[in-house]
Amino acid sequence: MQGGFIINFCRLKSNFFMLVWASLLAFSVQAENKSLIVASIKPLAMLQADLGLGWQEPIVPDGITPHDFSLRASHIKRINAAQLVIWLGPEIEPYLAKIMARKAAYQQIILPPYTHAEDAQNQHHKESKGDDEHQHYGKHQHKHHHGADLHPWTSPVYMQRAMAQVAEAINTLLPQYAHTVKANEQRQQQQLAAQMQQWQDYFASHKVSYLVYHDALQPYETAMGLGTSNMGSFADAAGSQFGLKNLRQLQLAIVQQKVACVLVDNEANLALIKKIAGQQLPQVTLDLLAWQLRPGTNNLHRYFAQLGQAVQQCQ
């Protein structure tokens, strides 16, 4: 009797450890696969995490802007090892063009360029409000750049489309994640759509006016119907500072009390802003690359919430 008990116990013990080993193996394979999916910038890494593909540090780390970034050996090693790379294409991310040209097409998801027309339908009912009351100062006349916009991720509409594209690609390239990704995508799409509607309604009934340091917010402004709220910028979309004539025009807008604040992003020349705007005009932080957001759940929802809250302060 005792011998049978020992044999059965040993079998149970053996089966238990086999089950644990199998579970750990499955988890490690899944973790390994997910670790081989990398995104170029943090907003795309947040999209990846929201789809249930795990959080991985983006190629461009916090503290460095895409305008200033150059690949190092460690970045090249990560890209070469990646099973899948999510990026914005050579026009927006030229620092990745050469290495990604050597990577197979099925190992990369290139998100399409953003154009102003993509988001136009989301603001048609707001365009008539106050159009005749606003004069735009400086270089920023809401003329969009030739070619692709350099900051498409600031548009919630663009990121919804990007999420759908990534989910569709995962269904083909990594079908083992398809069910999880699809369920997460549906939930995130609903959440982002509801959030966007709330902010559109808010900005339709609350007047905001501001200057931006870096002309990088146009995709967000278009989606939210804020076309007449941005009164000018100190630097263009690529971060190059405008000339003296433009700065004088911005100063005129401030003197005439046409603006409520300056939206200051990570690339801002604070000394220049202080010289032109003085001490009286409030400066509001604009975290375009989500440097201040810790990875977690509902990452894109939290990202667009902080953009909306920043603009909201400029009333």
Give a verbal description of the structure.
- The chain has helices at residues 2-35, 42-50, 73-81, 97-101, 116-119, 156-173, 178-205, 218-224, 244-255, 270-277, 299-312, and strands at 37-39, 84-87, 108-110, 210-214, 230-235, 261-264, 283-285.
- The protein has a 4-stranded parallel β-sheet with strand order 5-4-6-7, covered by helices on one side. Strands 1-2-3 form a 3-stranded parallel β-sheet.
- It has one domain (35-111, 145-312): Nitrogenase molybdenum iron protein domain (Rossmann fold, 3-Layer(aba) Sandwich).
- The protein is built from 11 helices and 7 strands.
Q: Count the domains.
A: 1
Instruction: Estimate the helix proportion, in percent.
Output: 40-55%
**Percent of residues in β-strands:** 5-15%
Question: Unreliable runs, pLDDT <50, ≥5 residues?
Answer: 5-33, 125-146
Order of helical and strand elements: HEHHEHEHHHEHEHEHEH
Ends distance: 83 Å
What is the averaged pLDDT score? 84
Count of DSSP-assigned helices: 11
Would you state the CATH class?
Alpha Beta
Total number of beta strands: 7
